[in-house]
Structure formats: C-alpha cells, structure tokens
Write a structure and sequence with these properties.
The structure holds two protein chains of two kinds.
Chain A lengths: L1 H27 L16 E7 L4 H14 L3 E4 L5 H10 L4 E4 L5 H6 L3 E15 L9 E2 L1 H8 L9 H5 L12 E5 L4 H13 L1 H5 L16 E3 L1 H11 L3 E6 L3 H6 L3 E2 L1 E3 L5 E2 L3 H9 L25 E9 L5 H15 L7 H4 L9 H11 L4
Parallel strand pairs in A: 1-2, 1-3, 5-10, 6-7, 6-8
Antiparallel strand pairs in A: 3-12, 4-8, 4-9, 4-12, 10-11
Helix pairs in contact in A: 1-14, 5-7, 12-14
Chain B lengths: L14 H5 L2 H51 L9 E2 L10 E3 L2 E3 L4 E2 L2 H32 L2 H15 L3 H27 L19 H26 L2 H9 L4 H12 L1 H17 L2 H6 L17 H13 L5 H34 L6
Antiparallel strand pairs in B: 1-4, 2-3
Classes of the chains: A alpha/beta, B mainly alpha.
C-alpha cells in the first residue's frame, strides 16, 4: 500500500511535466516531427520483443495498452534474459531487444547501428526466504558480497545481527542464488557488489555473466521467475530479483531487504527511493543513455536502480516495421502513456525524467 | 536354413520378358538400365550426405574455435576457471597473439568435462541393470498380452522430449528426492571413501545425482528396446537344452542368454551413453547450473552441453567474439569425447564377440 501511495505522488509530478516533454521532441528532433499526441501513426505491421525478464511484465502491459490505441501493430513479447535481448537485436532476429544492462563498448564496435534507448527506470531487490522472519532485514553491499563469496554462511552471523537489532535471525545456512542465464540483473547486482567491495571489484567484477565465487550450496536459476520459485523452494536463500517481480515474490512468501546507500541510510525499493536515486543521475545521463546508476550519491535513494533499455538497430529492413517500432517506443516513453503510473506502478517501475524522455525520443527517431 | 537367390546383380528374367523380342524388349531393358543407374547414383549421393554434414560441422566448429584454441592453449582442458572477463568486457578489448579478447578472460573446461562424465556415468550405472531386467521380463517372463503393451510403453518413453523430463525433474522429482529420499540416505552414510560423497548437505534437489537419475530414465528405453530385440534373437534351442540339463531360469539367463548377446548389450549401452553425454536441456534445467566440480553427489554442477546452451546468448554479447569461440572449442571437446567413447565401444564389441561366441556358435 505504501508503495502505491508513493507511486501516485511521483506520477502526479510526472504528469505535470508531461506536457513539457511533448514539446521537446519537436525542437530536439529536427528531421522528423512527432504529431501532437507524442507518437507516430503506424502502418499494419508486427513488432517482436525479447530479452530482459525484468522488463518483460511491463512490455506485456505496454503491448495491451498500445494496442488499444493502434490495434494494427501485432506485438509479440518474450522474457528470455538481457543477453538474449542484446544478441537477438544485434543479429536482427528480433525488432526490440530488452536489456537491464547497457551495451558493452565491444558490442557497439561490433554493431555500430545498435542503440540502447532508456525506456523506464527499474530497481532490483535483494530477496530472501528466512523462516520466521517477516521484518525487512537490513543489509549492506559489503555484507552481501561476503555472503556470495562464502565468508558469511549463516543468517545469524554477528555481522548481520549487529545491524539488525530487534530481528531474531535463525542459525540456518545462507544459500546464495544467482542467475545461470546471461542477465541484466546479474549486471546490476555485480555492479553493486563491485562498487561496495574492493575485493569483488578486483575479481570477479561485473558483467551479465560472471565467474561466481564458490559459496556453500550456491545455485543457478534461469530468469527472475526462476529466482522467485528457487528461493521459495530453498529456506535460507538470498536472491537478487527485479522489482517487477515484487508481487510474485511476496506471494511466494519471500522478504526483501533494506539496503544501505552511499549516504549510509537503509532504504526499501519504493517509487520514492527509486526516483530519488535516479534523479541524481539526470544531469550526467549522456545522449546515448549509457550510464550506471548503481550506488549513487542521492540522499534517500535506493542503491540498485537502472534504466531499462530497448536495444534497437537504426537500420531496419522495412520502413513499415521501422515506423511501427518508433511509434511503439514513442508511446512507451511518453509520460502520459507508457511512462505513466497507470502502467509503471503495476511493476513498481518509475517514469523517466523529462530530460531523459527527450533524449530517448531523439534516439528513437534515428530508427529508419 | 538354406539361402535362396540367384547370382548377385543379375535381374531375374520373367517369362513375359523372355518372350518379348526386338525393339520393345530393347526399350524395356534400356529403361530398366536407366532406372538402375539412377538408383545407384542417388544412393551414392545419399550416403555422402551424412558424412559431408559431419565433416562440415566439425570443420566449421574448428574454424570458429580457432582463436579460442590459440589463446586458451592446452591449459583449457585442465583449468577450472570459467571467467568471461568480468568488468573488463566493458573496457577496451586487448590483443594476445593476434586474438582479440576482453582483458581478464580465463576459460577452463575441466569442471564441465568432469560434470559431463559424472552425470553420464551415474546414468549408465543406474540404467543398465534396470534395462536388462526389463528386457528379460518383457521377453522371458511375462505373458504376451501384458509384455506387448509394456514394451510399447517403454518405446513411448523413448519418444518423450527431453524438456519434459527436465521440467518434471525440476518441479517434481528434485524437490521430492531432496525432501524425502536424500536426507535419509545422507544421514546413514558412513564417513568412508566413495560413500563419503553421499553424506550431507543434500541441497535443494538440483544437482549431480538428480541429473544422473533423470538421464538414467531417459536412456532406459533406448537400452531396453535394443536389449529386448537382442534377446528375441537368441535361438530357443540352447535355452531349452540348458533347462533340460537342470539349469534354473536365472542360470539360463546368466549362462546362455546374456553371453549370447554380450556385445550387443555393450552396443546398446554406448547408444545410451551417447545420448547421456550430449543431453542438453534436461541437464541445464536440473543440474543446478554451477560451473564447478560437485563437492558431493547432491551438489549443483553443470555439463558441457548444458553450459553451451545456457551461455550462448551471453557469449554473443561479447563483441570480440572470444566467448563464442570458447563455446565452439568446448563443443569440439564434447565431440571428441563422443567419438572416443564410440571407438572404444567398437573395440570392446569386436573383442568380446570374438571371445564370447557362446555355445557352439
């Protein structure tokens, strides 16, 4: 409930600036002018999307919402992992690849036509299944890295209990889950580890797949839904899961942690804390959208937030498909439509800041 | 039994053809001749297709893998690390001996090779007695009206797609074993060599033993069906003779039927082993997907095939192409393992069929 109220507050602000956002593309995108409504009218076409399981639930809601406006575009979606999203968009087997991670420089060099377009702001929760514990456990990046490195092995370890007075943690082993597929969630999580632990930064570092340190009973799971069901089945587990799976995680009986940010306060992933963290990066977000927003300096910000990216090639085979992709993405980033709380609050995402919306539209208009 | 047939290659003459004379007969023979030539050519082309496909696949794999072979070196086979470069994939790639790769990559296939061999070994170990027992029951013990539908069921099992086995393994079998079977086994195992690996912790049900059990179920039908057909070929006379000499059913089975088909059973086992070595999706689902050597029989691990399928998409995001090259290299390793297993089996078959020619054959 707390979440929804907070979302509405932010959404109200977003709506107020929505009109402003509509005006920007007309000046920014000199070549193509958007219609007043904010998105182009597509021809009959089909658009396929695959990739990030974190973005997948939102893309499904978007597809339904967009089709109420333009039913002539057939949209197929699939949650296959960010790695697949990047790969398939790069190969041209899919029109829109969804990714929680921006493209690596080598991937851009290999395929200079690829754009990573910010579509929304997401976050990642650290979930756990500790029998008998309903409170939000406080954790720091350093502690989590020591859990995944196999140095902290039980929930009642003094390092954890010291920052959780009043919470009785049982003496059961911690089972660290990680993603076995190539995942943007792994990218976000390991960036958080790298920024909070110097030993982690040295090795294994961050990537969409990494060489995991050995910790007792560690398990690999495929997809965010695999993390939820795997954690449900494994008492004592800890798992990093995208906030779009918060509802299913709660249904599965999992709890989620308050994470320490750079200012030293412990925050839950709510619309307020996610928006606060992202706001700290608005100025520095470059035109191509490539930026890490992990462990920012903003006060009251949640430490693991990110842009969700649409990976699209500027060079489409047919102009009909290109127009349909542009139209869909323009609609999706529009603060009155796809980026309104009507859609985003269902998956606990927050809208893009207006400056980033304008930058995304400029990128979208390059799709030809 | 006498063989019936004329000299090879000669078309049998019909009375009608013999009576035909002149141009009609010559035309008819010409057509038949062309038919024959066409047939022979088609057959020769057809026999080349599988060979060409094999050569093509191996060659392409080797070409794709070449940069990885060059950089990874022989240490690839013995290293345990599987590091795609971590953060260095987001920095500028570097060149070593002309091979472009993310700076801190370090790939080694040892854990995958061990995992592949371990799961397949467990699968064959479990499947072989079950298959031979089932084949015996189907051919020797059960009445026909029940043996036939049962045999059909075994063959149906062979046709079930592996993803269904995987799904069942992860949703039903794994959790069941981890909750009700593994703890009992683990708590009663003594701390002695070999059996030590069956002690706690039992984990979540995703791991080496569960993968081996599911693989065993997948190869049971292959071995059973082949073994059953072999048993049916054992002539009844030696068996009846042995019974007449006072042998019990089990003695007949052990001393007459089994030796008669020994090399065939080895062949059937290799067929099953081949499937177990290369099985991908079911193992990817139930192995726990951790690139490490299992610390006990319940621990999560992975195999070569499962790693290729779960890593390919991520590998393709490596713009230097080095990750894909490494997957091609590890695929070559799997191909070599399969070939070695098959050749070994052939050597064993030739050897045993010479020695094991049973009872007057």
């Amino acid at each position: 409930m707390k979440f929804h109220r907070a979302t509405r507050r932010v959404a109200a602000g977003a709506l107020a600036v929505g009109a402003l956002a509509l005006a920007i593309p007309a000046t920014a995108g000199a070549a193509t002018k958007l219609p007043k409504v904010g998105y182009e009218k597509p021809p009959t076409a089909s658009v396929s999307e695959t990739g990030s399981t974190l973005l997948y639930p939102l893309f499904n809601i978007w597809a339904g919402g967009y089709n109420t406006v333009y039913p002539q575009v057939t949209i197929t979606t699939a949650g296959t992992g960010s790695g697949t999203g990047i790969t398939d968009a790069s190969n041209g087997t899919v029109d829109i690849g969804a990714s929680d991670a921006y493209l690596a420089p080598s991937a851009v060099q290999a395929n200079p036509d690829l754009l990573n377009i910010p579509l929304a702001i997401s976050a990642q929760m650290i979930a756990y299944n500790i029998p008998g514990v309903t409170a939000h456990v406080k954790l720091t990046g350093k502690l989590i890295s020591e859990i995944y490195e196999g140095q902290i092995t039980t929930w009642n370890n003094s390092a954890i209990t010291a920052i959780n007075p009043g919470v009785t943690l049982p003496a059961i082993p911690i089972v660290a889950l990680h993603r076995s597929d190539s995942s943007g969630d792994t990218f976000l999580f390991t960036q958080f580890m790298s920024k909070t632990s110097s030993t982690w930064a040295a090795s294994p570092g961050y990537n969409t797949t990494i060489s995991w340190p050995s910790s007792p009973g560690a398990l690999g799971e495929a997809g965010n839904s695999g993390m939820v069901s795997g954690c449900k089945a494994t008492p004592g587990c800890i798992a990093y899961i995208g906030v779009s799976y918060l509802t299913s995680a709660l249904q599965a009986g999992l709890g989620y942690a308050e994470l320490q940010n750079q200012k030293g306060t412990y925050e839950l992933p709510t619309a307020t804390t996610i928006a606060a963290a992202a706001a700290g990066f608005v100025k520095t977000t470059p035109a191509n959208g490539t930026i890490s927003m992990i462990y920012g300096k903003a006060a009251g910000g949640y430490p693991i937030v990110n842009y969700e990216y649409g990976i699209v090639s500027t060079n489409q085979e047919s102009s009909a498909t290109a127009t349909a992709i542009r139209s869909l993405l323009e609609w999706a980033v529009n603060l009155k439509d796809g980026n309104s709380s009507q859609y985003l609050s269902q998956v606990n995402f927050v809208p893009l800041p207006t400056k980033v919306v304008a930058q995304s539209v400029t990128q979208i208009l390059k799709i030809k | 039994m006498t063989l019936v047939g004329g000299p090879a290659g000669q078309l049998p003459a019909t009375p009608q053809a013999a009576r035909r004379t002149g141009p009609v007969r010559r035309a008819a023979e010409a057509i038949r001749g062309h038919e024959e030539t066409g047939w022979r050519v088609a057959a020769r082309i057809a026999v080349l297709v599988p060979l060409a496909a094999l050569v093509f696949a191996i060659t392409v794999l080797a070409i794709k893998a070449y940069p990885a072979i060059k950089y990874n070196g022989f240490g690839f086979l013995t290293r345990r690390t599987w590091n795609a470069g971590g953060s260095s994939a987001y920095a500028q790639p570097v060149y070593t001996n002309g091979v472009e790769h993310p700076a801190s990559v370090s790939y080694g296939a040892w854990a995958l090779i061990v995992g592949t061999v371990q799961t397949s070994f467990i699968a064959v170990l479990l499947a072989l007695p079950i298959s031979i027992g089932a084949a015996f029951a189907l051919t020797e013990r059960l009445p026909r009206w029940i043996a036939r539908p049962l045999g059909f069921a075994v063959e149906l099992l062979a046709g079930i797609p592996s993803v269904i086995f995987g799904l069942w393994g992860i949703l039903t079998l794994g959790p069941f074993l981890a909750k009700h079977v593994y703890p009992i086994v683990a708590d009663h195992m003594p701390d002695v060599p070999v059996l030590r690996y069956f002690r706690q912790p039992v984990g979540s049900g995703e791991g080496l033993l569960t993968a081996g059990i599911v693989l065993a179920l997948m190869i049971v039908p292959i071995i059973t069906a082949t073994t059953r057909d072999l048993f049916l070929q054992v002539p009844p006379l030696p068996k009846e003779g042995a019974t007449a000499l006072g042998m019990t059913d089990s003695e007949v089975a052990r001393r007459v039927t089994l030796p008669w088909v020994r090399s065939g059973i080895i062949g059937a086992t290799v067929l099953g082993l081949g499937r177990a070595l290369g099985e991908t999706i079911a193992v990817a689902m139930i192995s726990g997907s951790i690139i490490t050597i299992a610390s006990n029989v319940y621990s999560p691990m992975t195999t070569i095939a499962a790693t290729i399928v779960s890593q390919l998409d991520g590998a393709e995001t490596d713009g230097t192409g080095f990750a894909v090259a490494t997957l091609a290299e590890v695929a070559l390793v799997l191909a070599v393992i399969s070939v070695v297993v098959n050749i070994t089996a052939r050597i064993i078959i030739t050897h045993t069929s010479r020695l094991g020619a049973p009872l007057g054959a």
